[in-house]
Amino acid sequence: MRVSIVGSGYVGTTVAACFTDMGHDVVNVDIDQDIVDAINAGKAPIHEPGLDDLLATHGGDTLAATTDYEDVLETDVTFLALPTPSKEDGSIDTSIIEAAAETLGDTLREKDGDHVVVTKSTVIPRTTTETLAPILADASGKQLGADLHVAMNPEFLREGTAVEDFQNPDKIVFGSDSETAIDTLHEIFKPLIEASDATVVETGVEEAEMIKYANNAFLASKVSLINDIGNICKEFGVDAYEVADAIGLDDRISERFLRSGLGWGGSCFGKDTNAIIHAATETGYEPAMLEAAVAVNDRQPERLLSLLDDHGDVESERVAVLGLAFKPGTDDVRDSRAIPVINGLQERGANVAAYDPVAAENMRTHFPDIEYTDAPQDALADASACVVCTDWDEFAVLDDEFDAMETRVVVDGRRIIERRDGLTYEGLTW
Ligand code: UDX
């Protein structure tokens, strides 16, 4: 099929590349000329394992990129994969996707025949039918249900495994009340449905929008719940990881997402959980559990710092921070737990020396004045303490590097440091 995708971030680019790999012709529309040039040159504009190969194979061929919406007219279906960031109050900002819908609608005015528009971005329930569909209909002059069809098809891609997640889905969700739209989505996803054992979920548009929020809010809440339990374990001197391993054997709980520690960061969990909390509250319902999940997550960095306080004053002392990315395998520091930890260390007057294998440059925009080192031992040298914020595998093998510390206090926020002898070691929940 001939598919267009508006927006070429880590979702839009990954989906475009995977669609071409399924045999479709895809045009990616983006405002950023550098992204467009990279894709047409067969280069991935973002780092995602496996994306380089897909771009090298299809970029500039069956995957074309452009800044010009007109190319949409050559396609049968358009996916909207635009950012839906948070406003100051945590509510969703749909201004970018609304503007894209307006421009898409204007362009579709020139097209004879049907067109399907699919929301790929994470949007609050009713956004597609009550906000985007009217914009598209007004701007294109097309009639909903006649020659204009809308649907919602959420993605469940994790940073660092986006290509793998797309190609190995547990579910593929099609939300629409238009048979034309549902049939179009089936045709696009047919190769993936046949190649994977994914369950196809056909549902309403609002249900599909809510499934995305429920998925993220549930996972974020699961992490906060194991952190709440982990904090209780710490007070009783109990190892939360021993407890998690045992309860994870209950298949109703499962072993995944039970790693207690500094909590969640990233571009989705905080954004989506706060957006659905805000939207729910607007209806008059108070989502107490989700509010508690956010509150527990917000508290974890301070708990780590108070463990550090128990071992002495860090004012004017060198403190090594190991790990800056919001999780291993990415250079992304958005909502990273290292940010409130470094803020807290600066409030305590510490001199921070930070190390991360790939995320230092991104963190420099938040903290231009701290020291960044090229190796963990350089951050640890002469340090009075060390805090660990990201569970990079390379931290698990650190051993004699700690000997260069002035005093060997190590507060581990991610249960990754193996060596304990000769260290004053504190685990956040163990
Ligand atoms: C998440 C969702 O998993 C994905 O489905 C959605 O599409 C986008 O948001 P992502 O944010 O990339 O993906 O990362 P994920 O691997 O889910 O981890 C999120 C955060 O939770 C990370 O900061 C991670 O360190 C933390 N986490 C995860 C824990 O603290 N404990 C765990 O057990 C698991």
UniProtKB/TrEMBL annotation:
GO terms for molecular function: NAD binding; UDP-glucose 6-dehydrogenase activity. InterPro entries: 6-PGluconate_DH-like_C_sf, NAD(P)-bd_dom_sf, UDP-Glc/GDP-Man, UDP-Glc/GDP-Man_DH_C, UDP-Glc/GDP-Man_DH_C_sf, UDP-Glc/GDP-Man_DH_dimer, UDP-Glc/GDP-Man_DH_N, UDPGDh_AglM. SUPFAM superfamilies: 6-phosphogluconate dehydrogenase C-terminal domain-like, NAD(P)-binding Rossmann-fold domains, UDP-glucose/GDP-mannose dehydrogenase C-terminal domain. Pathway: Nucleotide-sugar biosynthesis; UDP-alpha-D-glucuronate biosynthesis; UDP-alpha-D-glucuronate from UDP-alpha-D-glucose: step 1/1. NAD(+) binds at D30, T84, T122, E159, K271, R334. Its EC number is 1.1.1.22. It catalyses: UDP-alpha-D-glucose + 2 NAD(+) + H2O = UDP-alpha-D-glucuronate + 2 NADH + 3 H(+). Substrate binds at F156, L157, R158, E159, K212, F257, L258, R259, S260, G261, G265, K327. It is an enzyme of class 1 (oxidoreductase). It comes from the Archaea. GO terms for biological process: polysaccharide biosynthetic process; UDP-glucuronate biosynthetic process. The active site is at C268 (nucleophile). It holds the Pfam family UDPG_MGDP_dh. Keywords: NAD, Oxidoreductase. Residues 320-419 form the UDP-glucose/GDP-mannose dehydrogenase C-terminal domain. Belongs to the UDP-glucose/GDP-mannose dehydrogenase family. This is UDP-glucose 6-dehydrogenase. It comes from Halobacterium salinarum (Halobacterium halobium).
